[in-house]
Automatic annotation (TrEMBL), chain A:
Alphabetic keyword roster: Cell membrane, Membrane, NAD, Oxidoreductase, Quinone, Translocase, Transmembrane, Transmembrane helix, Transport
Transmembrane segments: 6-23, 28-48, 60-83
Source species: Streptomyces lavenduligriseus
Protein name: NADH-quinone oxidoreductase subunit K
Enzyme Commission number(s): 7.1.1.-
Keyword Transmembrane on entry: yes
Gene3D superfamilies recorded: 1.10.287.3510
Length: 99, 549
């Protein structure tokens, strides 16, 4: 199968993730959408790696997974502390500071 | 692509691999970063093994020693000629050791050291149950206002984890402007960002605002870094490599070994343009340029003030370093495409930051918008695309970072019963009550405004001169106009402090320990030295203004 199709899929997943970040209210769901964007990047890396016939892209995908895991640790810690304080993980409720 | 070539990806020849060459790592040249990261790891061990009573002292000691040692290593490397004649690319092409990298690393380390002093300050908050406390939450995991929080305060807990977090952030910042491939750039971006997200959530007072700031910073930061990563993926797809030099060659069309796959993707400008745009967007988010600035005021306001000062100074230095290297080393072949875009970004950043700052009533938000305007001024130097452009940006960043940390350190001093009194109305008449603090703050504001004999003037002059020489005269005119707008609200704060009556229930000015005094003194000293005798430092930045490729 033509690897370019995987790029279209990656772009589609990335767009779905970005749209989710913009329209969802729950901080956890927003964060999951960010993870979807990172995984779309991984798919693009692997597809490009296949097209160019070198392994750089596949190695980068591993680094991305590690970074995403570290981001989950930090992100969940912050979101859980917010939830325990406010009993809500809605990003709309967090509005103490406004323009 | 032929089937055999693809097949070789997941199969290997039958004969055993006899020898794998170990990568060559120049540990000496990477020592500044290694020292800082190593000290951060030691800090984690201190949290695990040292008794709670002595953790604070151990952490501060380790951090100060590490930052001083790393700065000494940077100076030694620069004195050895790595900034000029011996500049090269270390660690198998991952890290550049050259003038801009060393200059910015030195700036980040000094800013980090001064930031560390404000982190370690323990005399501002009133003594709680016989324990001196700093600006950070007693226990970050306890819910604000709960019994567990009260118990943690009573037990005298402090979050000494802030020191290793600070060192990790500094470690990432040291790599960020020196990264010489896109993977290193991305990892450094995350290493500097993740500790900052956590630090933002750790304020002792106004914890709800602090947590809110952290969530906003985290979600938007993760969103922006996902865009950065997609940009990196597209550039990798375009050039078949993430090395800066290789991508630059492919962009210029000077690459010699073109295989069919590369020939296919090289012709696809969409990959290059979209990838470059997404990557630059991620960096512009980090520097807080309009239209990617939305997080800046909220995060600056909500984060603990020492963190805000450090973040405002050091993140900007690191991110502008990375942006310079990206635009000057990777994408110079594309400058006819990115220059108009950066023109527009610089103009709206300068004007937007200055105009919105006028309406602000909170001193931290005001300084946040002022930092946005400053990002625009620095972008004007980036656009120059000349050696002078690089050196003027380096000089500007060095001057700006110390003024910023000093200004936020002054903000920590003005307090009332609820902690820091950040509302501007409470600053009325501060000059009558404590002339020294108000005078120091006035010096910082004049430096922000770019009044002659301050570092702000020398920096702005250098940047605008480089921009004008680079053919961006309209940009300079917009810059001068927005400087004038910005001067209005800086002067307004000075007038408020010195020429209005103090309120009877106004805030008090806390007497800090020598740590904060040192941070503020460093700010005043650099402001005056870089303002009155900038030539030596301009020459230094001039010598450091050449990238290795």
């Amino acid at each position: 199968m033509n690897p370019v199709n995987y790029l279209y899929l990656a772009a589609l997943l990335f767009t779905i993730g970005a749209t989710g970040v913009l329209i969802r209210r729950n901080a956890i769901v927003v964060f999951m959408c960010v993870e979807l964007m990172l995984n779309a990047c991984n798919l693009a890396f692997v597809a490009f790696s296949r097209m160019h016939g070198n392994l750089d892209g596949q190695i980068i995908a591993f680094f991305t997974m590690v970074v995403a895991a570290a981001e989950v640790v930090v992100g969940l810690a912050i979101i859980v502390s917010l939830f325990r304080t406010r009993h809500s993980a809605s990003v709309d409720d967090a509005s103490l500071m406004k323009l | 692509m032929s089937t055999t070539a693809v097949h070789s990806l997941w199969t290997t020849a039958a004969e055993p691999i006899t020898k794998i060459d170990a990568p060559k790592i120049e540990y000496g040249q990477l020592s500044p970063t290694l020292i800082v990261i190593g000290a951060a790891l030691v800090g984690v061990l201190i949290e695990a093994f040292v008794p709670r009573r002595s953790r604070y002292y151990a952490q501060v000691f380790v951090s100060v020693v590490a930052l001083c040692a790393a700065f000494a290593a940077v100076v030694a490397l620069a004195a050895d000629g790595y900034g000029t004649t011996k500049a090269h690319i270390a660690a198998m092409g991952a890290i550049a050791v050259d003038g801009p990298a060393l200059f910015l690393q030195g700036t980040i380390l000094l800013a980090g050291l001064v930031g560390l002093f404000t982190f370690a300050e323990r005399r501002l908050d009133p003594v709680a149950h016989g324990n001196r406390v700093d600006s950070f939450a007693a226990q970050a995991a306890s819910v604000p206002g709960s019994d567990s929080e009260k118990a943690a305060v009573r037990a005298g807990f402090t979050t000494t984890e802030v020191f290793p977090l600070l060192l990790f952030a500094i470690g990432g910042m040291l790599i960020f402007p020196a990264a010489n491939d896109l993977l290193t750039l991305f990892v450094a971006l995350e290493v500097l960002s993740l500790p900052l997200y956590l630090l933002c959530a750790l304020a002792r007072r106004k914890r709800l605002m602090s947590q809110e700031a952290a969530v906003k910073y985290f979600l938007l930061g993760a969103f922006a870094s996902a865009f950065t990563l997609f940009g990196i993926a597209l550039l990798y797809g375009y050039a078949g490599s993430v090395s800066y030099a290789r991508i630059a060659q492919v962009v210029d069309g000077t690459v010699t070994d073109v295989d069919p796959a590369l020939a296919d993707t090289m012709g696809n400008d969409a990959l290059l343009l979209i990838g470059g745009a997404l990557l630059v967007m991620g960096l512009l988010f980090k520097v807080g340029a309009v239209p990617f600035h939305m997080w800046t005021p909220d995060v600056y306001q909500g984060a603990p003030t020492p963190v805000t000062g450090f973040m405002a100074a050091a993140t900007k230095v690191a991110a502008f370093g990375a942006l310079l290297r990206l635009l000057y080393v990777v994408l110079p072949g594309l400058r006819w495409d990115w220059r108009p875009v950066m023109w527009a970004v610089a103009i709206i950043t300068m004007l937007g930051g200055a105009v919105v700052a006028i309406t602000q009533t909170d001193i931290k938000r005001l300084l946040a918008y002022s930092s946005i305007a400053h990002a625009g001024f620095i972008l004007a130097g980036v656009i120059a695309t000349s050696k002078d452009g690089v050196s003027s940006v380096l000089f500007y960043l060095a001057g700006y970072s110390f003024v910023t940390i000093g200004a936020f350190a002054v903000v920590t001093l003005v307090r009332d019963a609820g902690g820091e009194a950040t509302h501007l109305s409470k600053w009325a008449g501060l000059g009558r009550r404590s002339p020294l603090v108000a005078a120091v703050f006035a010096v910082f504001l004049l430096a922000f405004a770019g009044i002659p004999l301050t570092s702000g003037f020398a920096g702005k002059f250098a940047v605008f001169k480089a921009a004008a020489d680079g053919g961006a005269v309209p940009l300079v005119i917009v810059g001068v106009i927005s400087s004038a707008i910005a001067a209005f609200f800086y002067i307004r704060v000075i007038v408020l402090m010195f020429f209005s009556e103090p309120k009877p229930e106004g805030p008090t000015v806390a007497v800090p320990s020598p740590l904060t005094m040192l941070a503020i003194g460093m700010g005043v000293a650099t402001t005056l030295v870089l303002g009155i005798a900038p030539q030596y430092f301009l020459d230094l930045a001039g010598q450091a203004g050449v990238f290795v490729r």
